[in-house]
Amino acid sequence: MAMASELLKNATEARKTWVKRQTERFAQACQRRLRDSHGFETTATLKIFAPTNTKRGALKAAEELKHSLDEQGFVAPQVQVEALLKGMVFRLSMQASLVKDATDDGTGGLRGHCPICLGSKVLVALAPCGHTVCQDCKPTVCSTHRPTRRKQCPMCRAFVEATTAGIFVS
């Protein structure tokens, strides 16, 4: 029994060390993003391989990373698990912001990840395809000044005819 408890203790310490190291790597990615954008981008994304080859282990690692980012003061941390190589390898995608979005007053609608700028912002829906982008990226996919020049959805390449003002779910 003493050997089993010693192994469990070692595993717990190794897991804590791994989470701490990945949190530090994410902070460095944020620092690079801030430096490269001259302070304009405050959201960063980092993709890493999970330290396990089971989905259950990858989900547990994602949960612990999210908790660690939250403890370190990152705003709206998210860690997603992606299966690679037929579920044999898992990749974790970490994303968080350094500051709360100043333009968000809580009335703008559903927040989510924009596939263009990778920010966690208020989303709008594109018509007719229904894909979503943030309000900041809306001008890049919907031409309001030149209705004759139609733009395409960046996900499916359907022509965008209109956008919503926001997405509201009751």
UniProtKB/TrEMBL annotation:
Residues 114-157 form the RING-type domain. It comes from the Eukaryota. The lineage of its organism: Eukaryota, Sar, Alveolata, Dinophyceae, Suessiales. One of its GO terms (molecular function) is zinc ion binding. InterPro entries: Znf_RING, Znf_RING/FYVE/PHD. The keyword Cytoplasm does not apply. Signal peptide: none annotated. Keywords: Metal-binding, Zinc, Zinc-finger. This is URA2 protein.
